[in-house]
Amino acid sequence: MSEIVIYTIITISSIGILAALILYVAAQKFKVYEDPRIDEVEEALPSANCGGCGYPGCRNFAEACVKSDSFGELFCPVGGNDIMLDVAKILGKEAVEKAPLVAVVRCNGTPQKRKKTNEYDGAANCTIAASLYGGDTGCQYGCLGLGECVEACTFDAIHMNPETDLPEVTDEKCTACNACVVACPKDIIELRSKRKKERKIFVSCVNMDKGGAAKKSCSVACIGCNRCLKVCPHEAIVIKNFLAYIDYEACKLCRKCVIVCPTEAIHEINFPVRKIKDPKKLEAKKKQETIEIDNKEVDLIKIAKEKNKKEKRP
Question: Which of 66, 69, 96, 109 has the smallest set of CB atoms within 10 Å of its CB?
Fold first, then answer.
């Protein structure tokens, strides 16, 4: 073997060894330690990667669980309390139990109640349609009916009803991943607590126009009449921008607000049939509730006037 070949082999071998040493030193100096518990937590998670927890994927959520000092604030809506309990055991932390949530569609503007004023001829996408105009009805706040929320749901929990042109949520399948809420450009979908026997009471309207304009565009719109606010004994209702909203945490499901709503904008879901089955008796009860509210309002006005007179006297 000639000397040139020998020197070549030695030189190449030396370069290889030197490069290996440099790479080893660099790897040791810049290596990032990863807690092995991250893999354990990720394995315990449902691997849905839906983003409902507020992180891009289950891996990111697992890292947050391991590194976060406020573990109780983190929650996986798909796995629920059972999964979070398993994660807490892995990390040696205490899990905070949270009430399960479910998506609710706050629009009841069917074609019969919200007449179309024009025909949309464009891409079948809610975000695109919302960026172009207010919608094909007189209500600029309601559902566009193009099903972007359906496409966003990876759990097959929401579908478009062909008769109402509105999305409907299947509570049993809904994991409260928040995907449909984010997808809706009109903000008509929200997450509310899953109550006993799947019962819900909510204002199925997001129209913030004044009463007359809201009623003109949709016969079942909330007109901000304040009747539900006055009759609620639990201070669970607020009126803002001519629109009523029921706080699901404060609401005790007494259903008093449902009876007095003149436009039937407040919905009661999964409740037993009311004892008053006769429509005439139910209407009479509504009128009686309205009279009582009006009488209370008159009394308050009288008290306020008398108080003002006393204050004006020298």
Answer: 69
